[in-house]
Amino acid sequence: MRHFFxxxxxxxxxxxxxxxxxxxxxxxxxxxxxxQQNFCVGAAKVDITPIPGIAxxxxxxxxxxxxxxxxxxxxxxxxxxxxxxxxxxxxSCDLWSVSGGLADRIAELVKKHGKPLxxxxxxxxxTHTHHSPGNFSTSPMYNEFASYRKGFDNNLFDFFAQRIAQxxxxxxxxxxxATVSFSQKKIxxxxxxxxxxxxxxxxxxxxxxxxxxxxxxxKN
Length: 220
Known about the structure:
The protein is α+β, with helices and mostly antiparallel strands. The protein has one domain. Helix content is about 30%, strand content about 15%. It has seven helices and five strands. The chain has helices at about 1-15, 100-110, 140-145, 155-175, 195-200, 205-210, 215-220, and strands at about 40-45, 75-80, 85-95, 120-125, 175. It has a five-stranded mixed β-sheet with strand order 4-3-2-1-5, with helices on one face. A hairpin with a 5-residue loop joins strand 2 and strand 3 (about 85-95). The longest helix is centred in the last third of the chain and has 20 residues, at about 155-175. The protein is flat, with a radius of gyration of 22 Å. Mean pLDDT is about 80; it is low at about 10-20 and about 215-220. Its cofactor is Zn(2+). InterPro entries: Ceramidase_alk, NEUT/ALK_ceramidase_N. GO terms for molecular function: metal ion binding; N-acylsphingosine amidohydrolase activity. This is Neutral ceramidase. Keywords: Metal-binding, Zinc.
């Protein structure tokens, strides 16, 4: 029985190994810019909505095909450069995930545009929206199971890489002198516990509320 199980697992892994895109390229090394007088910040937003007809990601075999759009998908970038020449970009993508291969390709494209950001200077995050498509991951498992269609769509992968890189490039080019400040304010009822009834069943609920009233502010 154990031998059969191991053989089955090996077969599945071998099958999945052909379900991802093999991406080749060269990642740029980190680069520190020259010192400057001002702290600079830039921002950009680029539309990354694909054309209709692509399988949506996240619901596996019960998923469906995108027939249009409700709201557009975007890549939003904020670029920072301090007075000592250290720089980095933070990117929020309206996708269900950002794979390592996609991140590598984006860094390579940013370098090709002549912008001095290495892979480790680009922070990419996904909003995890299921209104985005599947089949662009460099993970074989996700290309097999994330949407009802199987396999890797190289055109979709390149589309996202180009658009997200464009967002980073535009943020760098739009950077201007800026200041950084911190402030805090209490906003009652801004958020709520999704299961308030369940939370109130905790014996130590009052102690939890008292102890964590300012947790969000203190951790930022």
